Amino acid sequence: MNVGILNASGCLDALTAPDVARELDAFVTKTITPLPREGNPTPRIAETDFGMLNSIGLQGPGIDAFLADVLPALAALGRPIWVSVGGFSADDFAGICEQLGERHDVATIELNLSCPNVEEAPESSAEIVAACRATTAKPVYAKLSPANSDLAEAARAVVAAGADGLSLVNTIRGLALDSATLQPKLARAVGGYSGPALKPIALACVHLCAQAVDVPIVGMGGVRSGLDALELVAVGASAVALGTVLFADPGAPARIRGELGAEASARGFPQPGDARGIARVPIEKTVELQGL
Q1: pTM, entire model
Q2: With 70 as the cut, is the pLDDT of residue 195 above it?
Q3: What CA–CA distance (Å, rounded) separates 244 from 251?
Q4: CATH code assigned at 211
Q5: How many CA within 13 A on the CB side of residue 258?
């Protein structure tokens, strides 16, 4: 069983780097909102010792310009297109999903339910998923936050509302200071933290949700190597997305795909997907261990 390799939303400009995008099994767009957005003030990206902070703020052209100008160009790359959808109400999400549902060049919709850099919709994630499910028959994935106080219950709720899969995890809020001035490096102070330090959190979240629901999971967070990808598969992911690594290593998709196969073979698995779920510890045992 093969393991699909995607990009994490917002971590690759496919039209600027089409050769990189073609190395993926599917391309995930930046998050699209109903209206154009300039995003947050700069500086909005900052490096840290073990990752990166971003506070882009869902900058984008809006759904109408996206459908007219961007999507046709992306479709020409010859890869399935996953469109990341954002908004500030359930109606925002549902309205975009309805428009996307009419497009043959959209393979899957990913609902960005957990962006740490903008205000959240007042409705629950499950309510947003239900509203979107009512407007489209396309596959819908819910992207959830690692900061959720009960992630397993959130996963069950969005799946019950109609989500076909999960994307785990989005970035988690973080802050970095300039060592000389002791002032925040980002204009808005706090941003979404990604990179190597996120991997143990992502592993825990995928491990938990893979036992809570029976749907495909795209695992992401700190993947830099084929072994990182295989570990996400081992805890229950059926596909893996690359994020921060793409900023420094455009060749990462091809490299990690090769490493993933080699790492799986070295452990006796004919295909990487054959290792799916082998690292699962039953939730009941996990809870018991946490109480020690």
Answers
A1: 0.94
A2: yes
A3: 13
A4: 3.20.20.70
A5: 5
Task: Count the domains in the chain.
Answer: 1
What single-letter DSSP state applies at residue 181? T
182 falls within a domain? no
pLDDT in tens, 24-56: 999 999 999 999 999 999 999 999 999 999 999
Which candidate in 115, 132, 205, 209 is catalytic? 115
Burial class (CB in 10 A: 0-12, 13-18, 19+), 287: exposed
Answer whether residue 103 is part of any domain: yes
Taking the C-alpha atoms of residue 142 and residue 107, their distance in angstroms, rounded to an integer, is: 15
List Cα–Cα distances, 173 to 51, 117, 151, 188, 238, in angstroms.
12, 8, 16, 12, 26
Would residue 51 count as lying in a domain? no
Residue 33 resides in a domain = yes
Whether 115 is a known active-site residue: answer yes
Query: Which domain does 15 fall in, by range?
Result: 4-39+57-172+195-290
